[in-house]
Structures are given as C-alpha cells and as structure tokens.
Amino acid sequence: MIIRSLTLLVLAVVAIGCSGLQAPLNPAGPSARSIAWLTWTFFTICGVVYAVTLSALIWAVMRRRRDEDDSPRTSRRLGTVVGAATAVTVMTLVVLTISSIVAGRGLTTPSGAGAVVIDAIGHQWWWEFNYQDVAPSDWVNSPNELHLPAGVPVVIRALSRDVIHSFWVPNLQGKRDLIPGILTYLWLQADQPGEYRGQCAEFCGPQHAHMAFRVVVQPVGEFQEWLRQQRQSAASPASAEAQHGQDVFMQSTCRTCHTIRGTEAGSRVGPELTHVGSRRSIAAEALPNDRTSLTTWIRNAQLVKPGSRMPPNPLSETDLKAVVAYIQGLR
C-alpha cells in the first residue's frame, strides 16, 4: 500500500510538471529543453538504480540461507559482485556529471547581433521590465508583463531594488537569483508564440506568492508593433467620465507614485500606467484586468496584497468610477 501510494504521488508530480504554462518539464525554448533533458536523464537513471536496489533487497530478504554461503567460493563470488556494483556506481556518477556539464553549456548567455536586451527589476512585490533603445525617450516600460519575440534570443539583465528575489520562467529557463546592488545576466528564447507564467522563486516577504508575471511571446512583426505602440504617450480621455478621472488622478496622491507618459505624472515609485489598460492582469497577476478588480485595487489594495506600497484611496464612488474609466482607457 505504501509503495503504491508513493508511486501514485510520483506519477502525479511528474504529470503536473509536464503540462501547463508554468511547468519545467514542458519546455518551450532551448534552455528549458536542456533542463528538461537533464531532469529526465536523472529521473531515468535514478529510477533504474532504485528498481535494481529494491529488487536486490527483496531477493535478499526472500532468499533462504544455504550451506555453501560460508564457502570460500561464495566469498570470492560476492567480492566480484561488490566490485562490479562499485564500478557501475562510479560509471553512473560519471554519466550524471557529464550530463550536468552538457546541459549547463546550453544555459550560457548567447552573444552576437540580433539579441534583444531587457532589464528585469524585482520590487516588493511586482516586476518591472525595461526595453532600452538608442534614445531614452523611446525606452519602453512594461510592469508585470514581459513581451518576447518568438525565435529570437533575449538577454535579461536582472537586478533587485530591495531584497533578494529570483527570476523564474519554468517553461523557458531555470531560475536566477536577483541580489540587491548586483547585476546578473540570463537569457531566454521561446520557440513559438504563446503565453507563459513567471514567478519569483525566492521568498521575499509576505506577498512573495503574489509576485508573478506574464510572458507573452509574439511573432517578430507583432513584437515590433507592440514596441511601437508602447512608445506612444498615453491616450487622451475618450469620455467626460474618463476626463474627470484624469483630473482626479492628477490632483490626488496617484501622480506621486506612478508615471503616465504625456501627463504631469512622472514618479517611479510604483508601476508605470501609460498603457495599463492593455495588460492582461494587474497587481503582478493577482487580479484580472477588469473594472471590478481595478475598483477593488484602487479603493484598497491592502485587501488584496497586505503590506504592499499601494495605499488605500478614500475616493467618493463617483470619483472612483471615473478613475477606473480613465485607467481602462490607457491602452
């Protein structure tokens, strides 16, 4: 019964790891394939070793003792068996070591023309992604949503602004720790367009579990169009309600924490909101990007993420609805 339960547990864990948008055994890029190959190599070899060891143990327990077990011939035969087992163990360790080295070579940062460079900055508890360009005015900031061109190597320059974080996109790459004050590099490459989930993999405070991000892989042409659109200033309010929301935003403490291009709001304390209406989620994947979630988050973010730097906003219902309308129009 115990062996059966353990077997089912192992099979369940393996099944979970082989599917989904946050699964290291469902690789979608060359780095992840190296990691998955190494995982399966270790799993297969260790499974064989476990099966052989367990079989030998069962045989030893079930075997009856014989008169010739104490003979010199039996002792010599056992010595040969132990020597052979030792040799096989050494060869197994050598194979595992070589496999680790081969897989590690596939994780080296690529060099050469064509690679996109993106800054990934960890905050408590959200992610900031900066796409640099020749002119600072053309830089793009995309909080909690990392866009990548399909089939193109992307170099990530990762750092932390406060405590130790860890950048991890299981389907594309292994995790990399972000140490305050130290710039570290890793690379990602996604084979096909699609969406994946990234996560902070180092405990960084009470809301560590709610520090995720979305990875959106697009065809190169769509990625270039996305960059062009993100370089634009914020859209003008499309209705009287949205215009009132912009006025409330600029007259409240909101403008002291956020940036909206083309307006007077220019703070870097919180995520940039220039195109927040086009994102798939808010609060680092904690909530979907819809009217209900925006209303909850703006009214009192502490109900969603206690301890976050987003303070409650004591706005009237009319002003709150107007600010939500303005935020949703920032696309």
Q: Roughly what percent helix?
A: 25-40%
Largest β-sheet summary: 5 strands, mixed
Cα shape: elongated
Judging by the overall fold, what is the CATH architecture of the largest domain? Answer: Sandwich
Spans where pLDDT lies below 50 across 5 or more residues: none
- Intertermini distance: 57 Å
Strand order of the largest sheet: 3-2-1-5-8
What's the total count of β strands?
A: 12
Beta percentage is: 15-25%
CATH superfamily of the largest domain: Cupredoxins -  blue copper proteins
Which whole number gives the mean pLDDT?
87
Estimate nothing, just give the exact number of structural domains: 3
Q: What is the name of the CATH topology of the largest domain? A: Immunoglobulin-like
Radius of gyration, taken over Cα atoms and rounded to an integer in Å: 27 Å
H/E topology pattern: HHHEEEEEEEEEEHHEEHH
Q: Helix segment count?
A: 7
CATH C-level category of the largest domain: Mainly Beta
Question: What key attributes describe this structure?
Answer:
331 residues; alpha+beta; Immunoglobulin-like; 7 helices; 12 strands
Structural account:
There is one protein chain. By secondary structure, the chain is of the alpha+beta class. It folds into three domains: 104 residues; 115 residues, Immunoglobulin-like (Sandwich); 89 residues, Cupredoxins -  blue copper proteins (Immunoglobulin-like, Sandwich). The chain has seven helices and twelve strands. The strands form three sheets. The chain has a five-stranded mixed β-sheet with strand order 3-2-1-5-8, with no helix packed on it. A hairpin with a 2-residue loop joins strand 1 and strand 2. Helix 5 packs across helix 7 and helix 6 crosses helix 7. It is elongated, with a radius of gyration of 27 Å. It starts with a helix and ends with a helix. The mean pLDDT is 87.
